[in-house]
Design a protein that fits this description.
The protein contains 1 helix and 5 strands. By secondary structure, it is an alpha+beta fold.
Length: 79
């Protein structure tokens, strides 16, 4: 029985390290159709609360797992 518990715990430990290994840092730059940077664009990892905002240069950095989808949202004024 003790051997079985140790085997299960070892398996869980190995699986949990694999899950963390799949987390990646995603970086990028958001621009408009004239290649000007867009500040204040919200980038959200779909289905989570994780996200980021672009800085004045339109750049962002966030963590996401392989296969997750990023959603971009921007509210601006037409001129």
């Amino acid at each position: 029985m003790r051997n079985r518990v140790l085997t299960v715990l070892t398996g869980l430990l190995l699986l949990s390290t694999q899950a963390f290994a799949q987390q990646k840092t995603v970086t990028g730059r958001v621009t408009n159709d004239q290649s000007a940077p867009l500040a204040g664009v919200q980038i959200q990892v779909k289905g989570t609360r994780a996200g980021a905002l672009t800085n004045a240069d339109g750049r962002y950095t966030l963590s996401a797992s392989v296969g997750q989808v990023l959603q971009f949202s921007y509210v601006g004024m037409a001129s």
